[in-house]
Amino acid sequence: MRNGFFSDDEVVGRFYDARLIKRLLGYVGRYAALAVLALVLVLTGMGLFLVNPWLLGRIVDLGIRGRDADMLVKLGCLYGAVELLIFVVTYAHNYLLQVIGQRVMYDLRAEFFSHLQRMPLPFFDRNPVGRLVTRVTNDIATLAELFSSGIVMVIGDLVLIIGIAATLIGLQPTLGLATLSTVPLLAVAAWFFQTRIRMAFREVRTRIARVNAALSENLSGIRVIQIFTQEARRARRFDELNASHRDAQLDSVFYHSLFTPTVTIINAVCIVVVLLLGGHMHQTGALSLGLLVSFLTYAQNFFHPIRNISEKVTIFQSAMASAERVFALLDEPEESGCREGAALGEVRGEIVFDRVSFSYTGTHEVLHEISFTVAPGQSVAIVGHTGAGKTTITALLNRMYEVTRGRILLDGRDLRDIAKFDLRRRIAVIHQDVFLFADTVLENIRLWDPAVPPERVEQIAREIGADPFIRALPHGYRTELQERGANLSTGQRQLISFARALCADPAILVLDEATSSIDSESEKIIQEAIKTLTRGRTCLIIAHRLSTIRHCDRILVLHQGHLVESGTHDELLARRSFYHKLYELQFL
Ligand SMILES: Nc1ncnc2c1ncn2[C@@H]1O[C@H](COP(=O)(O)OP(=O)(O)O)[C@@H](O)[C@H]1O
Ligand SMILES: [Mg+2]
């Protein structure tokens, strides 16, 4: 079976994809001046590389064999100067290319991050966190490598190869062609090894993706694994994946290790050809000793760029694959109506569900023709078995998901005509599992809004009844919470989430089983807090506790996505139907 988690990590890109390259170059566009400068430097460096073997030949012929001490010194110094220049140019273009690569990576990550923040919830249902993190880190780093050591260097290497070939033929056509005769051999070897390296590399990628997926799942579920002591079983499973990755890696290393010595051997053949033929030509006087030295040096240098290019194939390929994945995510439409849409003025808080049906998947409907009205300031409870669709109703209300059919009205206006940001500022949803950020208590309550002064936060906490326990923390409101609030109790986390909601001062409040995991000790505080919270607001309350539901103006009974009953607690009990059964099951 195809596993959604890593399926698209297994896609291996083509070596070259014009569409992707064009889009990637768009990012370099901002640094066009730097890129052009880098290219000029690379080409200059390659030009200098071409000069020195020739100079070497001149030194041998004019300086050494010609016994011209003056010339020897001059040419020797020139040779040194060229080497120094190569040093400077190489340093400069290496640095520049890294600068470009890092800037592009910075830009891509920034774009990706803000894009992710604007993605609608269904997107996160489809894309596990682990995969998104891989995109932002690995894939974008691979792209940066393409810029820092890929494209420009390949152009430079190509120019160098052509330059050397032209120089060889220009200096001595016969010997030049003989030297180049080994190139087809090299081409065949490069093709043979690179195809195998590519195949092995594809396996490596596939398998490392599996290792990553297994690792991240294991860490997320570590509690379950430890509680049910499944460590050994999980370790065995991980071991299989780990070993399979190692083997794939070793396959790729096998060909990789063989490739370099093969190039060296072919290079040696080439040099032997130059030595034998060139040596013979020198003996017959057709070639000066200096030229022979130049030829040998060129032949020696010739193979570096060829090997470089064939190795760049891997970088190109993984960059294309990464680009494909990164762009696919960047192209996913962002939350619509985030910024535009009519502004929402003062909210009274009347909610109308008008024959609302909804499906997460497009096939299976989880809500069927739900209709109800909540008057401004009313508290309405929603009860029903797990999976009845209670949470779904709340997710439709703040447009985390869009209704499939029917409509939801707020103060008589269709939600779809209200800007989402605007809407969400008026609705606070409190869930059972509270998410706390690794920051201070203060920031967790005011959510980094500098417009809310610390005194206001403390006042809110007092109203909620959270103040005493917060003061008892080591640094009070400035206490750093651990990730997800691991250093607080469930009740304390819940109180902070209440304070957070009160701080947002919403017109509409939604409590989704916010009280179900509270121990009876904190129950009293929580009940008081809820009273404070709900005062003067329209409230939708999903609760397991009778004490919470009983005081609601009305109770909606949901069963398998259908609204089966509604009324006050007493009315519904008197009817002795669905609610009555639920009541007996849950509360008695
Ligand atoms: N993100 C989702 N994607 C697909 N199906 C979902 C999603 N969330 C909930 N469901 C399904 O929708 C139905 C109602 O779920 P939910 O509203 O969470 O129920 P409740 O809150 O009443 O327990 C369930 O059958 C559940 O499997
Ligand atoms: Mg629920």
Automatic annotation (TrEMBL):
<feature type="domain" description="ABC transporter">
    <location>
        <begin position="351"/>
        <end position="585"/>
    </location>
</feature>
<dbReference type="GO" id="GO:0015421">
    <property type="term" value="F:ABC-type oligopeptide transporter activity"/>
</dbReference>
<dbReference type="InterPro" id="IPR003593">
    <property type="entry name" value="AAA+_ATPase"/>
</dbReference>
<keyword id="KW-0067">ATP-binding</keyword>
<dbReference type="InterPro" id="IPR036640">
    <property type="entry name" value="ABC1_TM_sf"/>
</dbReference>
<feature type="transmembrane region" description="Helical">
    <location>
        <begin position="253"/>
        <end position="278"/>
    </location>
</feature>
<keyword id="KW-0547">Nucleotide-binding</keyword>
<feature type="transmembrane region" description="Helical">
    <location>
        <begin position="146"/>
        <end position="169"/>
    </location>
</feature>
<feature type="domain" description="ABC transmembrane type-1">
    <location>
        <begin position="36"/>
        <end position="318"/>
    </location>
</feature>
<dbReference type="InterPro" id="IPR003439">
    <property type="entry name" value="ABC_transporter-like_ATP-bd"/>
</dbReference>
<dbReference type="GO" id="GO:0016887">
    <property type="term" value="F:ATP hydrolysis activity"/>
</dbReference>
<keyword id="KW-0812">Transmembrane</keyword>
<dbReference type="Pfam" id="PF00005">
    <property type="entry name" value="ABC_tran"/>
</dbReference>
<dbReference type="InterPro" id="IPR039421">
    <property type="entry name" value="Type_1_exporter"/>
</dbReference>
<feature type="transmembrane region" description="Helical">
    <location>
        <begin position="71"/>
        <end position="96"/>
    </location>
</feature>
<dbReference type="GO" id="GO:0005886">
    <property type="term" value="C:plasma membrane"/>
</dbReference>
<dbReference type="InterPro" id="IPR011527">
    <property type="entry name" value="ABC1_TM_dom"/>
</dbReference>
<feature type="transmembrane region" description="Helical">
    <location>
        <begin position="31"/>
        <end position="51"/>
    </location>
</feature>
<protein>
    <submittedName>
        <fullName>Lipid A export ATP-binding/permease protein MsbA</fullName>
    </submittedName>
</protein>
<feature type="transmembrane region" description="Helical">
    <location>
        <begin position="175"/>
        <end position="193"/>
    </location>
</feature>
<keyword id="KW-1133">Transmembrane helix</keyword>
<keyword id="KW-0472">Membrane</keyword>
<keyword id="KW-0813">Transport</keyword>
<dbReference type="InterPro" id="IPR027417">
    <property type="entry name" value="P-loop_NTPase"/>
</dbReference>
<dbReference type="GO" id="GO:0005524">
    <property type="term" value="F:ATP binding"/>
</dbReference>
<dbReference type="Pfam" id="PF00664">
    <property type="entry name" value="ABC_membrane"/>
</dbReference>
